């Protein structure tokens, strides 16, 4: 049975590493050595039974601050499914992070951490109708979709909700592609968003995901171009979209080196400027 413990050596809100953003998605060797020494000390003191996972919340905070530093034009959402522990959720909530949900259980964990509903998004494109009802009743008003069935379900379970459509994109360069798992083509996305308005929902925008552990920053460029075309198609039909969710996929370093966050930020910023100009929507990443 796996147990969980967080390594929290500092007083609440006083983490020194959280205040200095780091350029790369991996901590420096010097910092890593310090963290490993602290973890060794924690294990020696706690003497836990195994298996046992220790997570350093200072690193969680530092990585979040790095994203904020390099993506100041975006709202940062944490995908709760990555690690739904209350310690991680609480640490990020204290930094005013927003949260992306994939289940009713994740919603409950965020509610117990007193996270405002306007900082929650239900980003899973396949949801139980009961979970949609629960989320809507809890104040969540932003939902993802990628099919007519999900659109009709949302119209029944969360009338008046804001919805965004996920498009399928090429995931070349990703160690875990998602091309054939979620999303629809751009033409269908435009049709679904226009239909959403007819059904009493509020079409908000477009999302995509370039695949997990995406090592090629240029893979964000083409999907941003596709999204901009959907925005223009909807605008011609009288529907103004206002949200673009760039998904996840920013890589961590394991064995092989990966590009820096700065490289991803510059590439994405350039693609947004080229495709949207001065009419840039609200950005989520």
Short synopsis of the structure:
Helices cover 40% and strands 17% of the residues.
Descriptive overview:
The chain is an alpha/beta fold and 285 residues long. It has a single domain (57-284), classed as Alpha-Beta Barrel (TIM Barrel). Helix content is 40%, strand content 17%. The chain contains nine helices and 13 strands. The protein has helices spanning 29-46, 57-70, 86-94, 104-112, 129-137, 148-157, 186-198, 221-236, 261-276, and strands at 3-7, 52-56, 74-75, 77-79, 98-101, 120-122, 142-145, 162-166, 174-176, 202-207, 212-214, 243-245, 282-284. The strands form four sheets. It has a six-stranded parallel β-sheet. Helix 6 (148-157) links the parallel strand 7 (142-145) and strand 8. Helix 7 packs parallel to helix 8 and helix 8 (221-236) runs parallel beside helix 9. The longest helix has 18 residues, at 29-46. The two termini are 34 Å apart.
Q: Which short descriptors sum up this protein?
A:
single chain; 285 residues; alpha/beta; TIM Barrel; six-stranded parallel β-sheet; three-stranded parallel β-sheet; 9 helices; 13 strands
């Amino acid at each position: 049975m796996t147990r969980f413990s967080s390594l929290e050596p500092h007083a609440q809100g006083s983490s020194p590493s959280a205040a200095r953003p780091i350029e790369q998605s991996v901590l420096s060797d010097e910092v890593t050595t310090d963290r490993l020494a602290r973890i060794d000390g924690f294990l020696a003191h706690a003497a836990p039974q195994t298996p046992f996972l220790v997570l350093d919340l200072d690193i969680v905070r530092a990585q979040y601050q790095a994203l904020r530093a390099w993506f100041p034009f975006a709202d940062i959402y944490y995908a709760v499914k990555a690690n739904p522990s209350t310690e991680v959720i609480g640490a990020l909530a204290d930094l005013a992070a927003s949260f992306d949900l994939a289940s009713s259980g994740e919603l409950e964990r965020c509610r117990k951490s007193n996270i405002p509903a306007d900082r929650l998004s239900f980003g899973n494109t396949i949801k139980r109708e009961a979970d949609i009802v629960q989320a809507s009743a809890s104040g969540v008003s932003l939902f993802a979709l990628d099919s007519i069935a999900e659109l009709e379900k949302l119209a029944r379970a969360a009338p008046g909700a804001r919805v965004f459509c996920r498009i399928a994109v090429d995931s070349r360069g990703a160690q875990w592609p998602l091309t054939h798992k979620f999303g629809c083509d751009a033409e269908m996305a435009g049709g679904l968003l226009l239909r959403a308005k007819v059904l009493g929902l509020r079409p908000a925008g477009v999302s995509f995901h370039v695949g997990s552990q995406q090592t090629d920053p240029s893979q964000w460029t083409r999907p941003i171009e596709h999204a901009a075309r959907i925005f223009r198609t909807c605008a011609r039909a009288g529907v103004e979209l206002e949200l673009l969710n760039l998904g996840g996929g920013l890589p961590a370093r394991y064995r092989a080196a990966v590009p820096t966050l700065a490289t991803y930020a510059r590439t994405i910023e350039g693609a947004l400027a080229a495709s949207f100009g001065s009419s840039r929507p609200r950005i989520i990443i």
